Amino acid sequence: MIRSFAASALAVLVLACEPDEPDDPEPPGTLEFEHSYARIYRLDHRVDIAYVRTMGEPERHGCGILSERAHTELEDTLESLDSREDYGYDPNVQECASSPGAEILIEGFEHSPFLCDFMCCHRDLARAALIYTLIESHFVAGQVLEFDGEPYVAIEPDTPCP
């Protein structure tokens, strides 16, 4: 009797000591772009950005809906790629003075993640890097940047996340 009571008490203690659920669950969608300070997740038109916690600052999150233009260009860019190719950073390209500080992650690609940011990226991934940069700009600075002489709206204004 004492043994069964001890076993039951031990089981209760083990269950009570299990780790709590994380405070900030991962955003919905797939991780597609990552800097040392932020991660962008996407689920169809919805994008979520999670800023990595730094000393003294709490982790912050934001979400928005991709504009039709940004969504179409991102989808077209990613669909045009060959899943067996290596689209990573090439240190022999003169425009790339240093390794990119970001990665583009594409599920099902042999060489993913690819080192790539707005300033230094394989030409086939350049449009995707631009769109991820515009998404970051929207959430960080709250502004629309110009591209090819016109404003490029990457996130629909005043459209709440579902």
Descriptive account of the structure:
With 162 residues, the protein is α+β, with helices and mostly antiparallel strands. The chain has one domain. Helix content is 27%, strand content 22%. Strand 7 and strand 8 form a beta hairpin.
- Measured distance between first and last alpha carbons: 54 Å
Please give the count of helices: 3
The helix/strand series, from N terminus to C terminus, equals: HEEEEHEEHEE
Structural class: alpha+beta
Shape: globular
Low-confidence segments, ≥5 residues, pLDDT <50? Answer: 3-22
**Range of strand content:** 15-25%
What's the SSE blueprint?
Layout: H1 2-16, E1 30-35, E2 38-43, E3 46-51, E4 60-65, H2 68-79, E5 102-104, E6 114-115, H3 126-141, E7 145-147, E8 150-152
Antiparallel strand pairs: 1-2, 1-5, 2-3, 3-4, 5-6, 7-8
What's this, in brief?
By secondary structure, the chain is α+β, with helices and mostly antiparallel strands. It contains 3 helices and 8 strands; from the N terminus they run H-E-E-E-E-H-E-E-H-E-E.
Distinctive features:
globular, 3 helices, 162 residues, 8 strands, 22% strand
